[in-house]
Every structure is written in C-alpha cells, then in structure tokens.
Amino acid sequence: MRIVVLYLLLFFALSNAYFGKENEGLAVFGWATLLHSPRTVSFEGAGSALPSQDFGAALMNPALLQGEGYGAGLSWQNGDLANNQGIAVFSHPFLMGRIQHTYGMVDNGEVQHYDEFGKEEGIISRPMAQYYAITAAFPLKNFKFGITGRYLWERLAETSESQIGMGLAMDWGILWNPSSARYGFAFMGRHLGSQFRPYVKGGVNGYALASELAASLFWRTNQNLTWLFECSAPRYSPAIGKLGFEYRFAEPVMIRAGMQRELIDVARFANSLFDSSENTTKAGFYRLFSAGAGYRFWKLNLDYSYSMLIEGMGNEHRLALSGNF
C-alpha cells in the first residue's frame, strides 16, 4: 500500500498538468477553486495544515479528511461575486481510512445573447457549472496521505454549436503528524488536470486547469488561539501568501479571520515603508479580507463567513450546516 501511495505522489507531483506550460494563460474551470466552506474562506484558505472535521478542510488538503461515523454538510454562498453557489458533502469510513463525496454547483442565472454589433439575438442561456469529487485519506506511520479525484462539467450556452465542456482533476496532500499538537506542516497539489471535452463542437481541447502547489503550517500559541499560514504557487499567477487565525471564544464558539495577497505586493509594501518612491501596493486577490464564526451544538456545526471585496465591488456571505452521526 505504501509503495502505491509513493508512486501516486510522484506521478502527480511531476504531472504535466502543472509543469507543462502549454496553452499558458488559458486555464479552465477556475470557478471550482472558489467553492469552499465558510470556515475555510473565513481565514482565506490558510488552514490547510490544521486537522479539522470541517468538510471544507478536505477540499483544501485531502489529507485533512477525518471524522467518525457518517458525516454530511451543506454550504451556500451568495453576494456580488458569489451568486447562487454551493457544495453538498457526505463522508463515511472506508477500510483503514475515510471517504468524502462532494458535489459543487454554480448557477449563473439567465444570460442574454448579443451579436457582434451589441444587439440582442433573442436567445437566452442558463450557464451552469458543476463537479463531483471523491476524496480518500489514509494514515501512514509519520504522515497522512490524501487524494481527490474530480469530474467537472460546465454548460456556457445553449446554441446548436455549443456543448457541455468537461474536465478531470486530481488533488493530493501530505500531512505531517508531529508528536506535538502545537504545530503541523502540510504540502499539497491542487486541481492538477485538464479539459478533455471543449465547450464548442470541434473546438480546441486539452487546456489545463487552474492548478497550484502549496505548503502550509499552523502554530497553536495556546489552547484557544491558532495561527495559520500558507504559501501557494498557482500555475499562471504570482505566488500567494495567506494568513489567518482561529480563536476559541467560548467552548462552543469559534471566531476566525484571514487575508491573502500576492507575495510581490507584500514585498512592495515592505519596501514602501523605507522608500517613499516605491509604488503603492495593489491588492492581489479579489477579496480584501474575510472573517467568520462557528457555533457547535449537539453534533452539528453552524458556520458563517463574511468577505469584503476590493475596489468597492461589494461583499460575499457564506453559510454552512454540517455534522457527524
């Protein structure tokens, strides 16, 4: 079993889906990277090394999948850039590990078609994007390994030339299990894959997904406060730094907050403190910051997150209910 895991890790780490730079700048199915639980978004994805029974943790790092018995969760997000999007999750034990099934959906509503002169064509489409993912996590001696397979499909238009675009993706993650519960480290590859069916009949195929490699760690300063860090290297974008925290305000109540920025913007901001001629920093992500809270009652968890968008673009809200039985 361990040999199989090592071969899988080597295969996906060296996958052409990430390191092959053909069709640069033409990543597809990027919407799938934005479907997360409120807990994950509240600290901007920085918690990919912190073990948790939250179903969103396994979407950031498959090795974080854990829990007992059966688990289920439903998350819905809405706002100026996250209208009618959500995920539904079901998990259960499997052999020596655990399995999680995830369905994600983005409903873009009705879209009017226009011709090249900007006139209405009298055709209305309902773009819809969906995916199904299955995640498995298995404990090893000093590490925990997780892997996710994801099938994505998306309809952009309903004309005679259009068809449903399809793609396949794979995530993997390694979680180090130290002897201390105060810190931890993880390494991940996300959305490694490509499109295998174009959106238009006879169209160009084989575009890569919005893949990325990431390293993450957490540091628990005391029983109530945990700091979260991640550095990710997207396939087509500058490296991103993520910072967040989770604080146990009371026994059933958690509060969270986080932000992420391109590392080059962080460096520019640091330089500007010492050099007045340095260009001002620019926001490297569409969310300025996020914050949220969680409340546990009986065997259920209720989570909420709020995100403020940059440049006055508005805000986003996410709400989730989950539990283990």
Written overview of the protein:
By secondary structure, the protein is mostly beta strands. It contains 5 helices and 16 strands.
Short description:
The protein has 5 helices and 16 strands. About 4% of the residues have low confidence. Helix content is 11%, strand content 50%.
Produce the secondary structure layout.
Blueprint: H1 2-13, H2 16-19, H3 38-42, H4 57-60, E1 71-79, E2 85-94, E3 97-107, E4 111-114, E5 120-125, E6 128-139, E7 143-155, E8 165-176, E9 183-197, E10 212-220, E11 225-234, E12 240-250, E13 253-262, H5 263-272, E14 287-297, E15 300-309, E16 315-324
Antiparallel strand pairs: 1-2, 1-16, 2-3, 3-6, 4-5, 6-7, 7-8, 8-9, 9-10, 10-11, 11-12, 12-13, 13-14, 14-15, 15-16
Share of β-strand residues: over 45%
* Termini separation: 29 Å
What share of the residues lie within helices?
10-25%
Order of helical and strand elements: HHHHEEEEEEEEEEEEEHEEE
Shape: globular
Number of strands: 16
Briefly note the structural class of the backbone: mainly beta
Strand order of the largest sheet: 1-2-3-6-7-8-9-10-11-12-13-14-15-16
Main sheet attributes: strand count, strand direction, barrel closure: 14 strands, antiparallel, barrel
Radius of gyration from the CA trace?
A: 20 Å
Q: Whole-number average pLDDT? A: 84
Number of helices: 5
Low-confidence stretches: 12-24
Keywords:
14-stranded antiparallel β-barrel, 325 residues, mainly beta, two-stranded antiparallel ribbon
